[in-house]
């Protein structure tokens, strides 16, 4: 049933674009910040109270593996977010409900499968990645506990995606503030108070993620709108599932390819020893703010384009992309400069080892000046995905980022086997892939194709 276009809680299909983008953006950014604080709190506390081997364990290879798995599902679930946003923008409330229940069924089924596979296979994967012997026991413990609670991670992500698709970016933020506080308190209790080491940090994170999943489920169950969740209605709607997979599967593959390329880079980094692994782990936490901002802009523009595409407001589609791109570039130019200035004090939060801090600054000076170049990838890919075009962004990203990084690692690093050579793979791939997206977006064929298939 199609009714008049719905504007949603934040008036995404109406109003001043830059204001509406910021209203939607800041809760997502803050929510992502508190989500990032889960692992950052683990890293700070175990780095200070357990040691650099434990710090390497909660990042490094474990971070690469969990990002690979969770990233695939988040990419896959983005198909549900786009479909729900388009249904909601078009006022098709029955379609919203069908998509909500199919998406939640997908999260639960995927989570159960991942728990079994992750607990069984993760130790083998850590060894295959060349994790140092002094890090391996800690990393194995951390990742097994993480996979034991991964269903909660997926349920929260799909639930918060549902809320954001209909324009509600505030309640996911509130949930994450609560759960981040729970995680920090439990980290201090388990690691510092009870001396449980890496296991305590992992357990604190798992409990916090369960809390976040419960909060989002209860919120959806209590909603009086079309996105209300009811357990008895949870099922796989074949038509909706096909649409979700058509958009989400390429995004999931793209995320997996990202993670695989980063896994190969991590293997190279592992070969430089524990100090470099620890420095890279800390750098990943420090520049996490950059990726939080890009992620928030990406979710914002995907939802904006999705709802306005569903409402057939093509003028707002184009203007919102231009506005979002300008914001993303400006913010990340400033942020890159700020991180370079404050790098050493930030690294000292994670470790007191001066060699690890020096290595971290070496990494930061290579990647930070190029952060702004990633805007062309995140914003334009999110925009065309919001209109329903997911395959071509996936191909461009996989070729421009993933394949190029692997080729760089296989060709340049053997010729100059230094940490700086490995890290240069990031800015080089960002620049080339952004140029590909700019050319593709400006040609405009993606919008005509999406309008023709809608």
From TrEMBL:
Primary location: membrane
Q: Which PANTHER family match?
A: FMN_FAD EXPORTER YEEO-RELATED, MULTIDRUG RESISTANCE PROTEIN NORM-RELATED
Membrane-spanning segments: 21-38, 68-91, 103-125, 145-166, 173-192, 198-223, 244-269, 289-311, 323-343, 363-383, 395-415, 421-441
Which GO molecular function annotations are given, in alphabetical order? antiporter activity; xenobiotic transmembrane transporter activity
| Family in the record | Belongs to the multi antimicrobial extrusion (MATE) (TC 2.A.66.1) family.
Function, please?
Multidrug efflux pump.
The record describes its membrane topology as:
Multi-pass membrane protein
- Can the keyword Transmembrane be found in this entry's annotation? yes
Q: Share an example GO biological-process annotation for this protein.
A: monoatomic ion transport
**Pfam families xrefs:** MatE
Q: Where in the cell is it found?
A: Cell membrane
Please give the GO cellular component terms listed in this UniProt entry: plasma membrane
Domain of life where this protein originates: Bacteria
Keywords linked to the UniProt accession = Antiport, Cell membrane, Ion transport, Membrane, Transmembrane, Transmembrane helix, Transport
What protein am I looking at?
Probable multidrug resistance protein NorM
What species is this protein from? Candidatus Onthenecus intestinigallinarum
Respond yes or no to whether keyword Cell membrane is given for this record. yes
């Amino acid at each position: 049933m199609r009714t008049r276009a719905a504007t949603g809680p934040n008036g995404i299909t109406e109003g001043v674009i830059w204001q509406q983008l910021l209203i939607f953006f800041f809760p997502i950014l803050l929510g992502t910040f508190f989500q990032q604080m889960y692992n950052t709190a683990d890293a700070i506390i175990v780095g200070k109270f357990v040691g650099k081997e434990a710090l390497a364990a909660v990042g490094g290879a474990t971070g690469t593996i969990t990002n690979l798995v969770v990233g695939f599902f988040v990419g896959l679930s983005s198909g549900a977010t786009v479909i729900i946003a388009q249904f909601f923008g078009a006022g098709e409330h029955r379609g919203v409900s069908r998509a909500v229940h199919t998406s939640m069924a997908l999260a639960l089924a995927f989570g159960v499968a991942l728990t079994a596979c992750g607990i069984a296979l993760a130790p083998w994967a850590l060894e295959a990645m060349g994790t140092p012997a002094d890090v391996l026991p800690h990393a194995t413990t951390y990742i097994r506990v993480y996979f034991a609670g991964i269903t909660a991670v997926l349920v929260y992500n799909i639930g918060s995606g549902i809320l954001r698709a209909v324009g509600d970016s505030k309640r996911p933020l509130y949930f994450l503030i609560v759960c981040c506080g729970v995680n920090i308190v439990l980290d201090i209790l388990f690691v510092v108070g009870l001396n449980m080491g890496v296991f305590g940090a992992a357990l604190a994170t798992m409990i916090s993620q369960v809390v976040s999943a419960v909060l989002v489920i209860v919120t959806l169950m209590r909603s009086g709108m079309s996105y209300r969740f009811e357990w008895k209605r949870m099922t796989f709607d074949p038509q909706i599932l096909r649409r979700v997979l058509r958009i989400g599967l390429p995004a999931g593959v793209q995320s997996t390819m990202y993670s695989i390329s980063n896994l190969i880079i991590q293997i190279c980094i592992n070969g430089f020893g524990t100090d470099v692994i620890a420095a890279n782990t800390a750098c990943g936490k420090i520049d996490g703010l950059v990726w939080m901002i890009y992620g928030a802009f990406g979710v914002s523009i995907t939802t904006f384009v999705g709802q306005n595409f569903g409402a057939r407001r093509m003028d707002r589609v184009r203007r919102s992309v231009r506005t979002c791109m300008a914001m993303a570039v400006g913010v990340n130019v400033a942020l890159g400069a700020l991180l370079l200035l404050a790098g050493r004090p930030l690294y000292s939060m994670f470790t007191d080892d001066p060699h690890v801090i020096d290595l971290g600054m070496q990494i930061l000076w290579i990647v930070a000046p190029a952060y702004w170049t990633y805007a062309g990838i995140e914003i334009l890919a999110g925009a065309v995905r919001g209109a329903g075009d997911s395959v071509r962004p996936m191909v461009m990203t996989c070729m421009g980022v993933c394949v190029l990084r692997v080729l760089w690692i296989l060709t340049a690093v053997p010729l100059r086997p230094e940490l700086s050579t490995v890290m240069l793979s990031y800015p080089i791939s960002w620049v080339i892939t952004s140029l590909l997206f700019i050319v593709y977006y400006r040609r405009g064929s993606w919008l005509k194709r999406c309008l023709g298939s809608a």
